[in-house]
Every structure is written in structure tokens, then in C-alpha cells.
């Protein structure tokens, strides 16, 4: 997959899936699949996740980092992605966006979007205006109808904050394994640490049954999301994953952790021994789910 800038131009005609694609849920999947199956080169226009500060007048907590979104696009079969900072686009009129970005940089033969897609300065334009601009600048528009009860990013955020998970729209944490204080090793439960970025939504603090993909193999695992209140010191939220029946050094590598079931809230224990005992019970619970 190739990432381009606003100064580039794709040489072949493309089917452009357009949207923020925050969280890459099942509604987004419909739009991406339509673009990938259209018969032109599949491409995506989106914004760099970290650059979107507000949406609908409220502070925006993005679900996936930009690198996570790019990973999802590549797995889906997308060949080109344009993901500029929001500030580079926000003052364009709808027509300027259609002419310079969709027709210009992306060489769109068709644009695929949800039927609620908005664009242009202050989100002033809808799919109706997009179709008018498409006729003028040489691309068709495919608006995917998203039923009222279909998944939405707002619904996804609410579920994750409540520790609720969906089989239709799995929550997958993709990112680099970073070094921690290696406390897990001292209690016989080594973990793989993944940090959350500033501004990124963090799911409900607690312990989850997860599955972790390493080199194409899926392992059962257990993941704690939170701030490790039993351990003394101030820290930022992270995900710590212990892979069952696995040994190996994964530091510096990107891994996928798919969240399957919420087990219990994060707790502060009176001692590390009590923590160790609880982790053993959590792993026993995970094995029962397996």
C-alpha cells in the first residue's frame, strides 16, 4: 500500500472510499469493500487521526491511531491512501475539495461514501453536492446506505467505555510492543506492553479475554487495560497482554490484540502476592472461555 500527499497524483483511475473511518467498524467495512470491489484501483481519503481535535462541536477521542487505520486499510486490500492533517483541508470549500483532492490528487473515477457523508468547510456539503461536483469533475458517486441501526463510531466509543464488545465490529489494538518495568516477569506473568496515544480513546479499565496474532498465528491471551494501581507510581494508561502458552521476545514489533470479552474491572490489591493470585484466577477464567 502506498501513502500519498496532497502534492502527489495517482496515475490510474481510482475508486476512493472517503471518510474519517475512526475505529474501522462494520459500517466502514461496507464502504471500503464497495471501493475495493468496484473495478478501479482501490484508494482511501481520510484524515490523520491525531489531527482531528473536534467533531460535531465536541472534543474528538479517536479510537484508532493513524498507523492502526493504515494497517486496517492495507489488510482490506486498499492500494493508495491520502491522510492529510485536518488543518490542511478544513478551509477548502466543497468544490475545492472535489476538484483539488478527489479529482486532482486521487484521480477518482468514483467516490464511495456513507449516505451521511459531509465535506467542505464547516461540513457544509452533503452527498447531493458531491454528486453535482462529480458530474463537473468526472467522477461518479456511490453512497452506501447505512441503516439507522447500523454501527456508528459514536456507538462504538460508548460500548468501549462500558467494556462492551461486538463480534460485528471487533476492537483490535495494533501497535508496537514497548519496554516496561518488567514487573510481570517477577510474578511469572510476563506481559507485552502497548501504549495509548494522547487523545486516543482508552476502553474501560479492566481485564479482558483477548486473542493475539503473532506471525500469522492466533494465541489466546489476557489483557489488562489501565494504570496498574497496585504498583506504586504515576503512569499513563496502557494495555498489558500476557499470551498463554507462548514464549518469545516481541519487543519493538507490531502485534494485533483482539478484545473478545470483558472479565472484570481493574482493581488495586493490598499486595503484589494478592495481584498474582488474582491473575491466576483470571487466566483460569480465560481458559474456560477457550
Please describe the structure with a list of short key phrases separated by commas or semicolons.
290 residues, alpha/beta, Rossmann fold, Elongation Factor Tu (Ef-tu), domain 3, 2 domains, six-stranded parallel sheet, six-stranded antiparallel sheet, 14 strands
Describe the structure.
This protein is an alpha/beta fold. The protein has two domains: 2-144, 3-Layer(aba) Sandwich (Rossmann fold); 170-289, Beta Barrel (Elongation Factor Tu (Ef-tu), domain 3). The protein has helices spanning 26-36, 66-76, 94-105, 127-137, 153-161, 183-186, 272-289, and strands spanning 2-4, 14-18, 41-45, 54-55, 58-59, 80-82, 108-114, 140-144, 171-176, 192-195, 206-214, 217-226, 238-243, 254-265. The strands form three sheets. The chain has a six-stranded parallel sheet with strand order 1-6-3-2-7-8, sandwiched between helices. Strands 9-14-11-12-13-10 form a six-stranded antiparallel sheet. α4 links the parallel β7 and β8 (140-144). α3 crosses α4. It is elongated and about 70 Å long. The relative contact order is 0.13.
Quick overview of this protein structure:
By secondary structure, the chain is an alpha/beta fold. Helix content is 26%, strand content 27%. The longest helix is centred in the last third of the chain and has 18 residues, at 272-289.
Amino acid at each position: 500500500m502506498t501513502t500519498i500527499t496532497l502534492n502527489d497524483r495517482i496515475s490510474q483511475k481510482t475508486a476512493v472510499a472517503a471518510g474519517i473511518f475512526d475505529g474501522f467498524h462494520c459500517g466502514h467495512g461496507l464502504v471500503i469493500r464497495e471501493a475495493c470491489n468496484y473495478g478501479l484501483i482501490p484508494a482511501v481519503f481520510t484524515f490523520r487521526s491525531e489531527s482531528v481535535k473536534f467533531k460535531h462541536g465536541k472534543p474528538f477521542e479517536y479510537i484508532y491511531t493513524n498507523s492502526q487505520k493504515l494497517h486496517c486499510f492495507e489488510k482490506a486490500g486498499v492500494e493508495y491512501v491520502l491522510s492529510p492533517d485536518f488543518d490542511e483541508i478544513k478551509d477548502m470549500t466543497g468544490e475545492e475539495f472535489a476538484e483539488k483532492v478527489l479529482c486532482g490528487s486521487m484521480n477518482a473515477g468514483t467516490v464511495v461514501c456513507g449516505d451521511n457523508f459531509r465535506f467542505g468547510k464547516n461540513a457544509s456539503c452533503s452527498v447531493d453536492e458531491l454528486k453535482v461536483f462529480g458530474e463537473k469533475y468526472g467522477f461518479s458517486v456511490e453512497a452506501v446506505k447505512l441503516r439507522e441501526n447500523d454501527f456508528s463510531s459514536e456507538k462504538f466509543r460508548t460500548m468501549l467505555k462500558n467494556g462492551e464488545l461486538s463480534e460485528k465490529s471487533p476492537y483490535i489494538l495494533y501497535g508496537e510492543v514497548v519496554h516496561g518495568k518488567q514487573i510481570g516477569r517477577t510474578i511469572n506473568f510476563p506481559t507485552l506492553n502497548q501504549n495509548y496515544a494522547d487523545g486516543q480513546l482508552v476502553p474501560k479499565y479492566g481485564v479482558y479475554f483477548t486473542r493475539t496474532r503473532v506471525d500469522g498465528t492466533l494465541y489466546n491471551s489476557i489483557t489488562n487495560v489501565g494504570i496498574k494501581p497496585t504498583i506504586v507510581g504515576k503512569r499513563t494508561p496502557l494495555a498489558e497482554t500476557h499470551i498463554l502458552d507462548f514464549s518469545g521476545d516481541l519487543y519493538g514489533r507490531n502485534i494485533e490484540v483482539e478484545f473478545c470479552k470483558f472479565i472484570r474491572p481493574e482493581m488495586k490489591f493490598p499486595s503484589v502476592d494478592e495481584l498474582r493470585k488474582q491473575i491466576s484466577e483470571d487466566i483460569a477464567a480465560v481458559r474456560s472461555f477457550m
